[in-house]
Design a protein that fits this description.
Largest sheet: 7 strands, parallel
Shape: globular
Strand content: 5-15%
Structural class: alpha/beta
Number of helices: 11
Strand order of the largest sheet: 3-2-1-4-5-6-7
Radius of gyration: 20 Å
Number of strands: 12
Length: 365
Amino acid sequence: MRILFTTWSAPAHLHPMVPLARACQDAGHEVLLAVPPGCAAAVTAAGLTPVPVGAEPAAPPIGAVRGLPEDSWPADWPLRPAALGPGPRRVLDALVGRQAAIAEAMLPDLLGFARHWRPALVVSDASTYAGTLVADLLGVPLAHHQWGGPAVLELERGGPGGQPRPAYQALCERFGANPRRAPQVWIDPCPPSLRLPSPVRRLALRTAAAPRTTADRPTRTDQQPRVLIGLEDGAPVDLLRLAADQLAVPYREVTLPLGPDRPLPGGALLIHHGSGILTMAAAAHGIPQLVVSLRPEQALTGDRLAAIGAARHLPRAAAGAAELRTAGLALLADPARAAARRLAAEIAALPDPAALVPRLAELAD
């Protein structure tokens, strides 16, 4: 069976897909991964075959899209987008417009290649609109691959029961695609205790690499715990470093990619901005997290982690030196570590990617 994976970005959106793509390849299926040219080297390094499509997208960097104060976003906003005010709706329109511009740069080459190669199934990163349109135009099954966020985000289609957002509607009209086309299944690495409910069909899987030995597990002494800072495109680097400095402990900066071949190093606390891949890596290792969020989907991740006791969440506007110190010290206490260990056990029980391969084959049939 031919399976076309696609994503718009490496490493944050590519590497959550790598374990499943490898599992499909190991099972004897033909697997190709279509990406913008700048991502091709990362695909090759992951042991997969890239198909470069389009030019590098001329879209504003993701860090340029900012959210609004926390009280503008209800804790369950993805479940009821109609309740959002004009300000939050503008933020979501900006996010969708950015992804539509990226898709437009990818689509001519991606569609031309897919029509020639004729995949039986498209597995698309959930924010890669080009994959959705190609599956619709070819009439083949579609799976959306999540990256670890708590919500099934359907921003381009306006959320459950909503109207397609203008930029997505215009993109679909240009290429003759159905703006209401939804995937048959969502592939979701987010553990159940963090998820917001959704009526869509989900296939759970384990993507984050757990510690291989007890020596790799997070360690801590009362005298000198080690803190990790997760750096990714768009992360507020100075603010994250300030948080670590406030704790007066050694810290190590962690950069992507993280995955089966490069697990998260041991630490007593991870400070980051709500990245899905960093969230899942720390959760798999049982590491408490301090989330300093910039955008609404990152704030949602921080809120869900905090609700189960495995994290503290500070929106960027509320993250002063004193607040960062208080939150960090609280997370080094035993209750947060116990909650983080429970979350790690939940992730360890999720299905291995190889277990999903027969389900995808059934979907394609």
